[in-house]
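Render this sequence as a predicted structure.
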Amino acid sequence: MARWLAPRLPGPQHWVLADRDAGLLAHVADALPPRARDGSPITAEVRELDVTTLTAADLAGVDLVTASALLDLLTAEEIDAVAAACVGAGVAALLTLSVTGQVRFEPAEPRDVPMAAAFDAHQQRTVDGRALLGPRAPTVAEEAFVRHGAHILSRASPWHLGLDDVDLVVAWLQGWVAAAVAQDPDLARHADAYLARRLEAAEQGRLRVTVGHLDLLALP
C-alpha cells in the first residue's frame, strides 16, 4: 500500500510499515518511492508487530491506517479491535483487496463450482482457535467500523485477469487449487488435470478470470 499510495499523496510523509513477518519487513522499505506527488520526501520505518493488537493510544499522531489483502485473514474479534483502535484515535482506515468469494471463469466448466466452494471453506477455517472470516470479512468490517462510529465508503475492486496477466493467473490458480484440495481432499482426484487445463488455457490466452474484492474507506 505504501508503494502504491505514497506517490499519489502530497506533502512530507513518514510511513510505519508493520507486519508479523520479519522476512517481509526486510524487503518492504527498499521498495518505497522516495518522493510524494508534490516532490516532498517520503521516509519509513519497519516494526515487527501484530496490527490487531494496536490500540487508539498506539495510533496517536497517525493520519491513516492502510492495509491490503488483510481482512479475510482475521477473525471478527480482531477486526473489531482494529476498528475500535482506528475510530478511537480519530484515524481514517483504507483497507483494500478483501476477497468476496466471487470467482468467475470464462469459459466456465463444472469443476469450477466445487473448487470455489472448497476454497471459500478453506478461507473460513479455524486455525489455532481463530475462526477466519474469509469472504465474510468485508461485511463484518463494515459493521464493526459503523458500530464504533465511523462512516464507510465501499467500492468493488475485482481483478479482471487475462492474457496480459498470465504470471498472476498462474500463481493465483496454483494457490487457489492447492487451498481447495487442502480443504477437501476428495478434489485431489481431478485437481491435477483441472489445473493443467486451466493453466494451458491461460497461457494460450483462452481464459479470463474475475476475482471479486472490496475496498473499504472508514472515516472517523
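Summary. The chain is about 35% helix and 25% strand. The longest strand covers residues 92-106.
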